């Protein structure tokens, strides 16, 4: 069973904030205040894309102090399953969407001695409310924001103006890159590191942090992995007695939901572990695309993350 109580919202504003990035403002259809949230939270947006239900997670970038709307930003990704293209090309002001309650898997430590934020591209979004709250409370923070070009980078100008000397920008098209090793080796003891951006960037930075001996509890990340496409496959659901076909551009979780089976989820991106499901039988190979399971768990073949992982083979039976 999901932990989400969904609500209907109206799209009240859409703004192109950078090349291929649109900001959407959402308000409740019933006119009631939005649920309270803390910086780092995300929502899951449900949309009907060509008759197929899509559920995509997006970080909340609106002010926690404003109870009347949520704001999210969506990067248009051409070579994807279509959710971001649907949001960009189909959704218009006045349309109704369904969203989940906010879930926070990326909370900021308000009491940390120092908070170091590293963002790539649209990964800037969760840091916007974090910096707002920390600034109000006198917290110490810095943001290091990498963008492809100034036109591709969203909100860099606004954040630089709001927090001068605390926001650093690296523009790839201008030949500048951050030296993450130098950055991380010079942080004072007690600093917390937060990273949101592309997977390769996150892995690179966390490998440096681990090599430098950063404490695991001081390392935080948010990464929304899109379910990759693959060859269609069939899966048996032991508890419900159903057999489902997972299409090329459909996740196992989406196929389970389409079959009317209520499966657990939080991030839908292979990071939180909420949808972890036991594999009861497998005649083939599980393609693990998550970042939650350990190497040992993957090798055991007894667990799968239906939100992002796939299967290649003759038969797969899972516990749902």
Question: What can you see in these coordinates?
Answer:
This protein has 320 residues and is α/β, with parallel strands linked by helices. It is built from 7 helices and 17 strands. Strands 1, 2, 3, 4, 5, 6 and 7 form a 7-stranded antiparallel sheet that branches. A 5-stranded parallel sheet has the order 10-9-8-11-12, sandwiched between helices.
List the helices and strands and how they pair.
Layout: E1 7-18, E2 21-28, E3 41-49, E4 52-59, E5 70-75, H1 83-89, E6 96-99, E7 103-104, E8 114-120, H2 127-137, E9 141-147, H3 156-162, E10 167-171, H4 180-185, E11 191-196, H5 199-211, E12 219-222, E13 233-237, E14 242-246, H6 252-258, E15 277-287, H7 295-300, E16 303-304, E17 310-318
Parallel strand pairs: 8-9, 8-11, 9-10, 11-12, 13-17
Antiparallel strand pairs: 1-2, 1-6, 2-5, 3-4, 3-6, 3-7, 13-14, 15-16, 15-17
Q: How would you describe this structure in keywords?
A:
alpha/beta, 320 residues, Elongation Factor Tu (Ef-tu), domain 3, seven-stranded antiparallel β-sheet, Rossmann fold, 17 strands, five-stranded parallel β-sheet, Ubiquitin-like (UB roll)
């Amino acid at each position: 069973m999901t932990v989400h109580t969904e609500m209907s919202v109206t799209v009240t504003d859409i703004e192109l904030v950078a090349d291929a990035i649109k900001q959407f403002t959402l308000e409740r259809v019933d006119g009631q205040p939005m649920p309270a949230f803390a910086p780092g939270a995300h929502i899951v947006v449900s949309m009907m894309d060509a008759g197929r239900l899509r559920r995509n997670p997006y970080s909340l970038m609106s002010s926690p102090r404003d109870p009347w709307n949520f704001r999210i930003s969506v990067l248009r990704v051409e070579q994807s399953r279509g959710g971001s293209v649907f949001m960009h090309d189909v959704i218009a002001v006045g349309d109704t969407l369904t969203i989940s309650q906010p879930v926070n898997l990326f909370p900021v430590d308000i009491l940390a001695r120092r908070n170091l934020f590293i963002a790539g591209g649209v990964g800037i979004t969760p840091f916007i409310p974090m910096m707002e709250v920390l600034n109000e409370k006198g917290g110490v923070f810095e943001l290091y924001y990498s963008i492809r070009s100034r036109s591709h980078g969203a909100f860099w100008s606004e954040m630089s103006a709001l927090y001068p000397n605390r926001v650093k920008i690296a523009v790839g098209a201008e030949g500048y890159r951050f030296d993450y090793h130098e950055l991380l080796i010079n942080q004072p003891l007690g600093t917390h590191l937060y990273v949101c951006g592309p997977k390769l960037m996150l892995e690179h930075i966390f490998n440096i942090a681990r090599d430098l001996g950063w404490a695991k509890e001081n390392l935080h990340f948010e990464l929304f992995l899109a379910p990759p496409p693959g060859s269609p496959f069939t899966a048996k659901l032991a508890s419900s007695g159903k057999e489902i076909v997972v299409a090329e551009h459909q996740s196992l979780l989406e196929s389970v939901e389409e079959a009317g089976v209520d499966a657990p989820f939080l991030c839908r991106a292979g990071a939180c572990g909420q949808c972890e499901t036991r594999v009861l039988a497998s005649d083939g190979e599980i393609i693990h695309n998550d970042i939650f399971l350990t190497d040992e768990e993957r090798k055991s073949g007894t667990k799968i993350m239906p939100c992002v992982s796939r299967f290649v083979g003759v038969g797969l039976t899972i516990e749902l």
